[in-house]
Design brief:
Length: about 220
C-alpha cells in the first residue's frame, strides 16, 4: 500500500518520509511541499541549518521578529520558559540560535529573530495506512491534524469504497479527514480532507518541516 500512496504524493510535488516519529506516536507517511520563495529568503539570511529540536522552536516562537522593531528580554524569556528550561539551558539554546543566524541581539540581554519566511511550507500531508481497523485509523488521522494541513486515512481499495459509501463516511467529514482507496497500481482520493477548523500547533508544524529541511539539498 505504501508505495502506491507515495507515488500519489510524489505526483503532487510532495517530498515524503515514511514512519515519521511524532510526540504521540508514528505516522505512516508524512509529506511536505515547501514554498520556494520562502526557502530562497531563508537561505539569503545564511540560515542553511535546521533550527533544531522542538524546545528551540518553542523559544524562537516567543521572540519578536526584527522587522517589527520589538525585542524580548532574557528575563522575560526566562519567565516564559521557566517550566521547560533552567536559565543556563535557555542561554545555551539562545547561543545556538544566534550561531545559526536565527536570532540577533540588538542590545545586551534583548533578542530578535531573523525570519520573515515562516511558515516555510505550502502543505503538510499526513497519511495513516490501514488494512482494516477503520476507527483506529480515523483517530490517528484526527490527531495528525495538529500539524497536517491535509490528513488522510488510506485503506485497501475495496474496503475504502465501502467506507466511502457508508454511514462511516460522515465521521470522516465531521473530523475533516480525507480517504484514499489504494490498489497495487495506484490510489484514488474518495473524500477530500478539510483544511479548516483544526487547532494546529505552529511549533509542531515547524518541527515537522525542520526535519525535512535537515535532509534537503542546501
Amino acid at each position: 500500500m505504501a508505495s502506491s500512496v507515495i507515488r500519489w504524493m510524489a505526483r503532487r510535488g510532495l517530498t515524503v518520509k515514511p514512519e515519521f516519529a511524532l510526540p504521540w506516536g508514528v505516522c505512516d507517511l508524512v509529506a511536505v511541499k515547501l514554498d520556494p520563495v520562502r526557502v530562497r529568503l531563508r537561505l539569503s539570511y545564511g540560515q542553511t541549518r535546521s533550527v533544531g529540536p522542538p524546545v528551540r522552536l518553542h523559544i524562537l516562537s516567543r521572540i519578536p521578529e526584527a522587522d517589527t522593531g520589538r525585542s524580548i528580554s532574557f528575563r522575560k524569556l526566562n519567565e516564559d520558559m521557566a517550566d521547560i528550561l533552567p536559565p543556563d539551558a535557555l542561554s545555551r539554546e539562545l547561543t545556538l540560535l544566534a550561531g545559526g543566524r536565527f536570532v540577533t541581539s540588538p542590545r545586551l540581554g534583548f533578542f530578535q529573530k531573523i525570519n520573515g519566511w515562516a511558515p516555510l511550507h505550502l502543505k503538510i500531508v499526513a497519511v495513516e495506512l490501514k488494512l482494516s481497523r477503520v476507527s483506529e485509523a480515523l483517530g490517528q488521522a484526527a490527531a495528525n491534524r495538529l500539524f497536517a494541513t491535509d490528513s488522510y486515512v488510506a485503506l485497501p481499495g475495496g474496503l475504502a469504497l465501502r467506507v466511502g459509501m457508508s454511514e462511516r463516511a460522515r465521521n470522516f467529514k465531521l473530523q475533516g479527514i480525507g480517504l484514499l482507496a489504494v490498489w497495487h497500481h495506484g490510489c484514488r482520493e474518495l473524500l477530500k480532507p478539510s483544511t479548516k477548523d483544526a487547532l494546529r500547533s505552529e511549533v509542531v508544524q515547524s518541527h515537522v518541516v525542520e526535519r525535512f529541511w535537515r535532509t534537503r539539498d542546501n
